Every structure is written in structure tokens, then in C-alpha cells.
Amino acid sequence: MGRKALVIGSGGREHAIVWALRYRSLDVEEIYCVPGNAGISEIATCLPTMDWKDFAGLIDLARDKEIDLTVVGPEAPLVAGIVDAFNEAGLTIFGPGKVASQLEGSKVWAKKLMKKYDIPTAEFETFDDPEKALVYIQKKDTYPIVVKADGLAGGKGVMIAETFDQAKEAIEEIMLRRRFGSAGEKVVVEEYLQGEEVSIIAVTDGEYILPMLSSQDHKAIYDGDRGPNTGGMGAYSSAPIVDYSLSKRIESEILFRLLEGLKKEGIEYKGVIYAGLMITEDGPRVLEFNVRFGDPEAQAILPRFRGDFFDLLLASATQGINKQVVNWDPRQCVCVVLASRGYPGKYETGKVIYGLEKFTDEDDILIFHAGTKRDDQGRIVTAGGRVLGVTALGKDLKEARDKAYSAVEEINFEGKYYRRDIAEKGIRRLEQTQRSG
Ligand code: AMP
Ligand code: GLY
Q1: I want to staple 100 with a disulfide (CB 3.0 to 4.6 A). Which of 88, 96, 233, 415 is the partner?
Q2: Per-residue 3-state assignment (H helix, E strand, C coil) for 297-330
Q3: Which CATH architecture has domain 3-95?
Q4: Nearest atom of ligand 1 to the alpha carbon of 219
Q5: What is the pLDDT of residues 180-203, one digit of tens each?
Q6: pTM of the shown model
Q7: Nearest bound ligand to the CA of residue 121
Q8: Which fold would CATH assign to domain 129-185?
Q9: What is the number of the ligand 2 atom nearest to the C-alpha of 232?
């Protein structure tokens, strides 16, 4: 009998996870997704009325459908302890438990762990008293500085202050006016780092760690990394800035040290370790750790996965990562996010999406759905800020980029917005290295 999986989440990342369980895993008979979206429902059974917060309901579902492995996409259920609940019920689930998920759920906790185990990161101080935070920034004379809410804030809890007044405003907004609720009980104030950002995503069983391909996200809404931050407007793999020697350095100074540190603390860690890094002149520095796959990084990495994805995630949950054989498609991958105009602010939904049917059988173009659903006439319509991840594989970044943007032209909906410079940084870096040698 084939294996059965349950995936929690509804975004482009979850579509990519479901895709890899369906097409990059042997012997997977059935996949359920809570709540899913219109694209996921083409390749899995979606349960749109179920809520991830209903752990008891999900446990019943997993038992009832005889699920062999549950995979959690987003951070919120992990931080809320879904893995502990499943484990207590005797069910197998991919991801870290509640204590370990503080790596993403509490920036104060994560920074202290980094300091203790000598993991390179920005210099920082933490505060639970706004008065003390203000006294501290009064003494600062080098700007910008970075003010971060401690808890989960949907990627919006980080403020870069150019002046004392802005830093004061940020502290008041987070700690006094509680813009992010209880996430603002504490803050981290840290040094501003300059450089290029990369994402390193790895899978671990707590004993061994398997780094995946390097990738780069594009967080700002406008071209040239301008404007407010979003969940991510596009991604590509691999990131040329991460050459062999840098990747070895990231493994030894960051990933291995983190795993050793967690072990010394007696914290069991299974699942994804995602290191958001700034590559500075002095080497890699951790901006943040996440406890799940990146979105849209997963869409730019998983299409290149060659191995058994179900087996890999199962091995993370039950141990044996070291026995996994994983290869990567040498083709490069670019994912361009199509968003609803107005995102990350207010936007409209319910717009009919045209052109999707052109891409059902391609090997090198994949359309991952994020905010989509079927309306009562069965049409696929927009249902969120980030709508689709138009993803292409090509012999190099340039070809992948060109193919992705050609596909973007074929898909339309009212208010379609996308960045036009996804992967540009990587392509420019490659051109420079070619010219210089
Ligand atoms: P985080 O959620 O901590 O990764 O922060 C979100 C974004 O803020 C990052 O992707 C960076 O673009 C920016 N950022 C965070 N910390 C710093 C820092 N210390 N220096 C410069 N930029 C930062
Ligand atoms: N792409 C950024 C994130 O997933 O956090």
C-alpha cells in the first residue's frame, strides 16, 4: 500500500511541498492538505474548512486517514506546538517542537543562543522594558540601527531606524502601542549590517544536517529592493555569491555550531533550519533563523530536488538523514511572484486568473499557487496578496529568468503586479566573475 501525507498550509511554499511529495517521491498514494488552495487541489485532497489551530481535529484526521507523515509549511503552527501534540498522539510529523521553534518564535531567545555558541550575528542588546531600551539608544551615535519585535510579526516586526527619533518611534510602536501584540513584549536592538542577503535552508534530524541549495529572496515590493517589505516577491537558486568556500564556512560556523549548541542545551531539533544571512565584508552573519522552508525560496529549490522527498522528510522526523541520497538538477531555477496590486497593503481579491491552462504539461515551467481559490462558477480567482509563483528551470540563471518572465506574460488577472528584476543580482554577479576571470 502506498504512503499517505498530510500537509498544513495554503501558500506557494505548500504547493511546492505537495508537488515534491507527489512528483519527487516514490509510492505516495494520497496527499491531504489543510486548508490548501486552488492549485494544490489539482494534485491533493484539500480540506479548506479545517483550521490549523484545531490540533485535535488534525490529529483525528491523521488517524482517520492513516497518514504516515504530516508536514507543516508555516511557522505559526510549529511555534504553537503542533509537533508536540502530534508526537504525544503517537503520530509522525515533520518539524521542530515548541521549545525548538523559539529559534524563530523569539528573536531574543535566538540571539542569546547565537551569542552563547559563537554563531556570527549582528551585535545586539535585548530589552523587556521600553524605558531601558530608550536609554540605550540615546547613547548610540552610529545609525542606522535595527529594532526588532521579539515574537512572530509576519515579517513586519523589523524596523531599520536612520535616526534616534525613528528608533524611539520603533520602540514605542512595538513595546508601548503593541502594534504586533504580545510579540512586542521584548525587543532586540541590533547593529545594522551591510551586504547581500542569502537564504540557506537545511534539513536535520537533530544529529545530521543536510544543506539544500542556496537561494535568494526579494523581500521589498519594488524593483531595486525599494519600498516596504513583503513576504517575498521572488526567489532563485542557486545564489552565485555562495561559492564553495563560503558554503563550507556557513556550514561550519553557522549550521554545525547551531546544531551542536541545541544539543548541548538538551533541545531536540528536527525539521528545517533556515538561516537568513547577510554576507558582509567580514563574512556571513545571521539575520534570523526560521524553522520552516522559505516562501518563495521553496518554490525555487524544490523543483531541482532529485531524491525521495517523502523519505527525506520522514528521515528528519524519525532519524536517518545521513542515509538519504539527495542530488540536485543542475539547471537553475527562478520564481517570480505575481501579486495583487496594493500588496503588502490593501488589495482586492476575486479577480479571475487567465492563462493557467497553458502550463499544465511543461517540464521546465511550474506555476505554484499561493492566494487562489475556485469561485462558485469553478473559475480560479485571486484570494490573497501573493497569488502565484511563476517558476522556470533553465540551463543558467539568465535562461531560467527569461523563461519565467515569458510565462508571466501569458498569465493575467486584473491588478497583476510583479517585480521585473528577480534574479538580476545573481546574473550580474555571474557576468562580473566571467569578465574578471
Ligand atoms: P529578519 O526578520 O530578522 O530577517 O529581518 C527582516 C529583514 O530586515 C531582513 O531580511 C533584512 O533585509 C532586514 N534586516 C534585519 N536585520 C538586519 C540588520 N541587522 N542589518 C540590516 N538589515 C537587517
Ligand atoms: N522568504 C522569506 C521567508 O520565508 O521568511
Answers
A1: 96
A2: HHHHHHHHEECCHHHHHHHHHHCCHHHCCCEECC
A3: 3-Layer(aba) Sandwich (3.40)
A4: 10
A5: 999 999 999 999 999 999 999 999
A6: 0.97
A7: 1
A8: Dna Ligase; domain 1 (3.30.1490)
A9: 1
All CATH 3.40.50.20 domain ranges of the chain, comma separated, are 3-95
Residues lining ligand 1, judged by CB closer than 6 Å? 122, 146, 148, 155, 158, 190-193, 197, 219, 276, 287-288
* Residue 287 alpha carbon to ligand 1 centre in Å: 6
pLDDT in tens, 205-253: 999 999 999 999 999 999 999 999 999 999 999 999 999 999 999 999 9
Protein residue with its CA nearest to atom 3 in ligand 2: 294
Pair 140, 118: CB distance under 8 Å: no
Q: Where in the chain is the domain with CATH 3.30.1490.20?
A: 129-185
Determine whether the shortest distance from the Cβ of 294 to ligand 2 is under 6 A. yes
The tally of CA atoms less than 13 A away on the side-chain side of residue 368 is 33
User: Quick one: cell of 176?
Assistant: 508601548
Q: Which of 107, 124, 278 to mutate to test the pocket of ligand 1 (most atoms within 8 A of CB)?
A: 278
